[in-house]
Amino acid sequence: MNNLPVVRSPWRIVILLLGFTFLYAPMLMLVIYSFNSSKLVTVWAGWSTRWYGELLRDDAMMSAVGLSLTIAACAATAAAILGTIAAVVLVRFGRFRGSNGFAFMITAPLVMPDVITGLSLLLLFVALAHAIGWPADRGMLTIWLAHVTFCTAYVAVVISSRLRELDRSIEEAAMDLGATPLKCFLSLRYR
User: Fold this and answer.
1) Nearest residue to 125 via CA among 107, 109, 143
2) pLDDT in tens, 104-158
3) Per the domain annotation, does 160 fall within a domain?
4) I need a labelling partner for 154 at 20 to 30 A (CA). Which of 24, 45, 52, 76 fits?
5) How far apart are CA 14 and CA 174, in angstroms?
6) Rounded distance, CA 14 to CA 22, Å?
7) Domain that holds residue 39
C-alpha cells in the first residue's frame, strides 16, 4: 500500500481539464469543420455532408482506402504471427547466445522515432535494390514490410509480458494429461 498523503487541490482539476482540452480540442474542431459546406476551411457556411459525398465518389481516394485497409490487415496478421513467435522465444528459451541482441532488435522500433525507422527502412530498400535488385520498385510490398517491422515489436512486448505471468505448472499438467505442446499453447494462451 502507498502511505503517502493524498493532496486534493483544485489546481489538479484545472490542469487536468486544460490538458484534455489541449489534446482533444483540435480533433473536435476537425470533426466539426468536416461538416462545413464552404470550400474554404476558415469560413463557416453552414452544416453539410457534401464533402463526405465527394469523398465517397472519388475513385482514387476509395482505391487508396482499400489499399490501406489491405496493407493494415496483412501487416496485422503477419505481426501477430511473428510477434507471438518472438515472444515465445524471449520467454520460453530464456538466456541463449545473442538473447540480449535479439530482445534489443525486437524492441528497437518501440524506442526509435517512427520517422527514423521509416527512413532507415527506405535506405535499406534502396541499398538492397542497388545491391541485389530486390525490391525492383518500392510499393505495396515494401510498405507492408515496414508496417510488419514496427507492429511486430508491439505484439512481442504485449504477448511476452502475458507469457511471463502464466503459471508453467498448468502447461505441464496439460502435457502430463496427454495434450501436445501446440494444443497446450493454443488452449492456455488464448483464453
Assistant:
1) 143
2) 999 999 999 999 999 999 999 999 999 999 888 888 999 999 999 999 999 999 9
3) yes
4) 24
5) 54
6) 12
7) 10-56
Task: Check whether residue 113 and residue 144 sit in a common domain.
Answer: yes
d(CA 174, CA 181): 9
H helices of the chain, in order, are 10-33, 50-57, 59-92, 99-111, 114-132, 140-165, 168-176, 181-189
Q: What are phi and psi of 36, to 5 degrees?
A: -75, 135
Number of domains in the chain: 2
- CA distances in angstroms from 48 to 28, 44, 68, listed in the order given: 16, 11, 27
Domain end among 41, 56, 71: 56
